[in-house]
Structures are given as structure tokens and as C-alpha cells.
Design a protein that fits this description.
Rossmann fold, Helicase, Ruva Protein, domain 3, 18 strands
């Protein structure tokens, strides 16, 4: 809850009518204000008084409002700055946010939008948090510590954030953290995968439509922008947007208005837009597959999510957190992991990042009977190249997993070297795996094949080859 009577707003503008309008608006919100008409007066006021929000025009008689933004970032970094720009000065407004402005508003000033911005700016003080307040982002490594610091920094503004990272590294988790630590935390957070929406439905999904606007539009539909109004919208895999939709998205971001399909009127929106991709968007711009003006608009602030191989020290704490989640989801006792197994996990390169670690541990839990995961329980897949999106990748087959990884694990784990050949070792381990999964699925071969990621025919062949007799014909 914000106690408005304790807040003071600094207004810097050289036009008396604008200063008066802003001052009256602030007063009607129950806030006090102090007005300055030059850059120097603004600097002096900052020295003499405490302010909770600063409103500044970008064009002042003795300099640029960007100088105020830079000065406040250096000297009063907790103070949010809202810049007022002439209509069409989008490049200047974006630069202001790059320098640390909280947000911008165009002239003529929309007072409803201004009140919303001021309220969000005041709330950003209330929601200020430290890097220790990140239960959703697991890890204590230096890259993760830097990531948390960056999230705190960008959470204080309304600037668009472009989140870059490999598949499975946690881009959506970072977006949710930005929302959670922002003044919008009590409003909706909506994530949409741009690549998963059919092209012909994309405009309707994002902006909505009215009843009868096209065949099949039997009722009005609220688009995702309106559903996220007041909150945050994540456009995941934004590189997959078709060019015609990129034009429409750019206009929405600039005008902060949407027009549903079939509607004659536009609707004002207050949405913070975050975007992400695992692709190189700069290359897409160079190839003409992504508009440079849209890239410039969404890439005001860029955050890079480190891949798991660059924060391998976090594997220990990540593994225990994942095991706790698996136990909760399946309503059973948490399984523990041996130090030797942790060491094996730390030697992997993780082309699928944290998502791959989750899959490895889920398989290990399914194959472990004594609630202790050991090196022999860990099955890796080396079939996926590091640049491939593994979000829909099926687990490697038993044969692939064993033949590509167990040879290396024999040496790492110090296993019994008295076996006659490595092939015999592989057969023994494969037999144990098949028996364990069959028992888990009550000897249902269809479910077993599905869980192992192999065909029913392949499973039947493996069972016959290994001498495993299953009476069930399923």
C-alpha cells in the first residue's frame, strides 16, 4: 500500500501550461510537487529535497532531459524518471530508457496514462528487493549472481527487455522474475510462444477480434495484449513472428493501443512487453527476416541468460531443487543423489541446459529403487547438437543412451573392470534398466516403450535379445 501523502514529485518543464497541468494532476492524486523550468533548477532541487518520482521534459532551454536521466542514475539510482517527449520522438524516448528512465509519455499528455505511470513508479520503491529474494532462480555462481542483479535493475523500469539465451536455459523464468520484482507483480503475467501460433490466427490471438469479423468468429475474443493489461506480456521466440505481424506489433508498441480485428476503435493498453529467443536476432535482421526498427524497439535493455555449462557449480543445488520438485509432483519421498553422481553430472556439457538436467534426473528417479541416485542411474543423450531446441525432443533410446555414454561412465565411476568386455557390461546394464521400467509399468510393454522413447517393435527386439520373457501382449 502506497501512502501518497508522503511522496513528493519533481516536475521539470519550461512550458508554464504543462507544468501547471502536471502539478494539478499530481495534486489530485494526493501527492505534493515541486516545479522547475530549467535543467539547472532541476539539479538544484535534487540537492535540496527528497523526491520519489521525477517528471522531466526532454527539451529544456539549457540542455536535454537526458542529462537529468543520466545524473539521477549516477547520483539517485533509486529515483524513477518519467520523460515527456514530443510525438514522434521515439528514438529519443528509447535512448532515455537505455540510460535508465523508468518510462516515457508522449505529448499531448494522456492524463490517465500519466497517473498509471506515476503509480507504477511509486510502487517500484515498495517492491525494491535484493539478490537474496530470488527463490525462483536457483544458483549461487557468479553468472547467476550477475543475472539477479540485472533483473533487479530492469525491474525498476518499464523499458522493454530482450532476453537472450539457449533453449532450456530459463528465459521464461527470468521474465517471470522481472515481473515478480516489478511494480506490476499483482497484475497478470502472460507468456506466449510466437512460433506455436498458426500464422492465420496470430493477429486474433495477440490483438483479439469482434464477433462476426471473420468466418468462425462466433463471439468477441480478448487478445493477449488486453488479457495482460496492467501487467507483463512475454513474447517468447519472437524471431518466429511473420514480417506482416512484425509491422503490426511495432505499431502497438509505439502507440500503446490495440485494434481488435473487425473493430473500428483502438483500445489503450498499459502492458510491459518482454521478448525472448534462442536464435541470433541480429543475423535475422541482416537476412531481412526480422525488421530492424522492431529489433531496435524491443532491444532497449538486453539480458543474457547463461547456459548451464557456464555455471556448472550450480549443478549441485539445481539437482537437489529438481529432485524436490519431482518428489512433490509425484507425491513420493524425495530421492537423494550421491556425491559421485554429482561429479558425473558436473562433467557433462548440457546442450539442453537446465531442461536437460531435469530430464536426466527424472529418468534417474524412475530407474532408482533405493532412493539414492548413483552414477549408474544417470543416462545422457549425446545425440542433440548444442544449437538445437530440445523442448520437444524425445529421450534417447536405451540403445543410444547406453552405447554413447556408458563406456565413458565405466571409467568415471570406477566400475567393476572384471567383466570380459564392455559389450557384456552394456548388456547387463540395459537388462537392468528394462526390467526396472517394466516393473514400474506393471509389465505393460506399450507404456514401457513410450517411457523409454523407443518403438514397441524395438522394445520387443531388445527383450528377445536380452532373454527377458514377458507374457503380457500389451
Amino acid at each position: 500500500m502506497i501512502n501518497t501523502m508522503t511522496h513528493n514529485i519533481l516536475i521539470i518543464d519550461d512550458e508554464p501550461d504543462i507544468r501547471q497541468l502536471l502539478s494539478i494532476t499530481v495534486s489530485r492524486m494526493g501527492l505534493s510537487s515541486y516545479c522547475a523550468d530549467t535543467l539547472q533548477q532541476g539539479f538544484q532541487a535534487l540537492k535540496e529535497r527528497n523526491f520519489q518520482v521525477c517528471l522531466t521534459d526532454l527539451r529544456l532551454p539549457d540542455g536535454s532531459g537526458l542529462d537529468i536521466v543520466k545524473h539521477i542514475q549516477q547520483q539517485y539510482s533509486e529515483l524513477p524518471v518519467i520523460v515527456i517527449t514530443a510525438h514522434g520522438s521515439m528514438d529519443i524516448a528509447i535512448n532515455a530508457m537505455k540510460y535508465g528512465a523508468f518510462d516515457f509519455i508522449n505529448k499531448p499528455v494522456d492524463l490517465h496514462h500519466l497517473r498509471s505511470l506515476i503509480h507504477n513508479a511509486l510502487s517500484s520503491h515498495v517492491n525494491a528487493k535484493s539478490t537474496s529474494d530470488f527463490p525462483e532462480i536457483v544458483g549461487e555462481s557468479k553468472p547467476i549472481h550477475r543475472l539477479k542483479q540485472n533483473i533487479i535493475k530492469v525491474s525498476r523500469s518499464q523499458a522493454p527487455v530482450f532476453i537472450v539465451g539457449e533453449s532450456g536455459s530459463g528465459k521464461e523464468l527470468v521474465a517471470r522474475s522481472i515481473h515478480t520484482h516489478s511494480s506490476r507483480q499483482d497484475q497478470p503475467f502472460i507468456a506466449v510462444n510466437c512460433g506455436a501460433i498458426p500464422t492465420e490466427l496470430m493477429e486474433s490471438e495477440l490483438f483479439g477480434h469482434t464477433k462476426g469479423s471473420f468466418t468462425g468468429a462466433h463471439q468477441d475474443k480478448q487478445g493477449l495484449f488486453l488479457a495482460a493489461n496492467g501487467g507483463t506480456l512475454l513474447l517468447d521466440e519472437i524471431a518466429d513472428l511473420p514480417l506482416d505481424m512484425q509491422v503490426k506489433l511495432l505499431r502497438v508498441l509505439q502507440e500503446k493501443r490495440v485494434r481488435p480485428i473487425g473493430s473500428q476503435t483502438e483500445i489503450s493498453i498499459d502492458v510491459r512487453v518482454l521478448s525472448s529467443t534462442h536464435k541470433n536476432l541480429s543475423d535475422a535482421v541482416g537476412n531481412g527476416r526480422f525488421r530492424s526498427d522492431l529489433f531496435y524497439r524491443i532491444n532497449v535493455i538486453e539480458i543474457t541468460v547463461p547456459p548451464l555449462r557456464e555455471r556448472i557449480d550450480d549443478v549441485d543445488i539445481l539437482s537437489n531443487t529438481i529432485l524436490e520438485k519431482i518428489a512433490t509432483q509425484n507425491n513420493h519421498q524425495k530421492q537423494h543423489i550421491s556425491p559421485e553422481a554429482i561429479q558425473v553430472l558436473k562433467q557433462h556439457t548440457y546442450p539442453g541446459n537446465v531442461r536437460e538436467l531435469e530430464n536426466i534426473l527424472e529418468r534417474a528417479c524412475a530407474l532408482t529403487e533405493k532412493h539414492l541416485i548413483t552414477p549408474e542411474s544417470l543416462l545422457f543423450s549425446n545425440q542433440v547438437p548444442s544449437h538445437t531446441d530440445t523442448s520437444d525432443q524425445k529421450p534417447a533410446s536405451v540403445e543410444q543412451q547406453n552405447n554413447t555414454t556408458i563406456k565413458g561412465q565405466i571409467k568415471e565411476s570406477g566400475y567393476d573392470s572384471n567383466l570380459q568386455t564392455i559389450d557384456e557390461y552394456i548388456k547387463e546394464v540395459e537388462k537392468d534398466i528394462l526390467l526396472a521400467v517394466l516393473q514400474q509399468n506393471r509389465w505393460n510393454r506399450t507404456l514401457t516403450a513410450k517411457e523409454l522413447g523407443i518403438t514397441f517393435r524395438s522394445l520387443r527386439y531388445r527383450l528377445k535379445k536380452l532373454g527377458i520373457d514377458v507374457d503380457n501382449d500389451k
